[in-house]
Here is the input.
Amino acid sequence: MILALHKLARCRCLSIASLTTTATDPADAWDATLDPTRAFFSFSEKAAAELATFLAAQPVLDGLTEVRAVEFIPARAGDLPAFAAEARAMVDRLVLAGPRFAVAHPTPGLSLQQQLAVPWLLANLLGDTLVQNETGDRFYIITDRGGRMEEGARYSQTRQGGSFHTDGVNLKEGYDYFLLSCIAPAAHGGESVLLNGSAVHHALQHRAPEALPILQRDFVWEYKGIQSGRYYHEPILKMVDGQPRWRYLRDYLEEAARQQDAPLDAGAVTAMDQLDAVLDDAALQFRHTLHAGETVIINDRQIFHGRTPFEDHPGAVDLECHLAATSETPLKRTYSRFWVNA
Ligand SMILES: [Fe+2]
Here is the structure.
């Protein structure tokens, strides 16, 4: 994978040279040529052994069939001192600074059930985990439930790709970062795509500067999936201490406008078209396919993300069916997600 990315980067380096050399803050902005090893993180053997011992002592993981039960596992730094300290250092170095995201490698030797609990512990050691739907789930499963966004489904419950976005659109307050952990990859596709918010802002300054003041107007957003039918106002782009902070998921914006009977004006549509054109620029997109057990921690206000469309194995089943099955059944592409406020 690393070799493939480097090869890709070499092919694109000429076309993006002007971008990288004129970025507002070269230390902050990156594009498709980002060296993935800058974002990779492995816990030490000491932290991994501490984690394995802790997980082996969690009775809720024995015969686990209901993933929400993982939420009953307490996450206290005192129980996992080395793991907690390394997690904090990882976020300080890679998520709040540096590339603004980290890819934590799996801890070897864990069962599927134990691995499910790792991002839950990580998220809770890093801050407060937030409720992600009307049923109060903090441990949220991303998988294809057969719907489409055009029909009102949440992006996370489809197999659609594109629609590059930030996650913190369902809550006015947003959140600092979120975790995506791969439980099982897709049969085909489902590559993660990340874009740096500073590089996107910089590209817009050059390609469509007239879009920037429009994106800084207030837009109507729904507390979609959290408190349906309730709305709030926030801009797509905020400048904070000279740095861009983003909130964007176009399908949700358009849906909220329809529900409120307040159509987006032509200027807003054009500005979003211009933003989408930048987000669709492959020269800005860092791509990585997460392997089972890998967790990506993303600074939600400074990174856009999305994925390529995907296909599951024929006959693949949901995680709960897979955990309950007595025989080996293929698992759908399944990720867990955690929204975290530091
Ligand atoms: Fe997302």
Remarks:
- The first strand starts at residue 40 and ends at 41.
